[in-house]
Write a structure and sequence with these properties.
By secondary structure, this protein is an alpha+beta fold. It is built from two helices and seven strands, in the order E-E-E-E-H-E-E-E-H. Strand 1 (29-31) and strand 2 form a beta hairpin. The mean pLDDT is 84.
Length: 129
């Protein structure tokens, strides 16, 4: 199921740097046919309401608008969520997602989740804007 969320649940005790270290390839988040630029995405490792490792994604304003339109147009449809060419999951959209926040919960182990978050981080040499 792909649905919006409020504030993230508990943050996991996974040590992830504030920026993507050199040598870690930049991951591009795509939902359906819409790709989000790295600067539009903030990713964090959290625990969902059931205590499972989950990926929290927050999009900037433009990304949130794109996500709202995409989900509004695809209620009842399956939309693959990918990082690069890797399908993370293919949930069914149950509602339009406004606000630009979503949680991706699945069968992540901590190492896999840490790797995903690192790939979605901005590069360390990126200036704060």
């Amino acid at each position: 199921m792909l649905a919006g969320c409020d504030a993230p649940q508990e943050t996991l005790s996974i040590t992830v740097p504030a920026c993507r270290p050199p040598g870690v390839d930049q991951g591009i988040l795509s939902i359906g046919e819409v790709s989000f630029q790295p600067a539009q995405v903030q990713a964090e490792a959290i625990e969902d309401a059931l205590g499972r490792p989950a990926l929290s994604i927050r999009l900037d304003e433009a990304g949130a608008e794109d996500l709202a339109g995409l989900t509004r147009e695809n209620i009842g449809q399956t939309l693959p969520l990918r990082v690069d060419d890797e399908v993370i999951m293919s949930p069914i959209v149950t509602e339009a997602i406004s606000g630009g926040m979503l949680q991706v919960a699945g069968d992540f182990d901590r190492d896999e989740l840490e790797s995903l978050v690192r790939r979605l981080l901005p590069p360390c040499d990126q200036e704060a804007g």
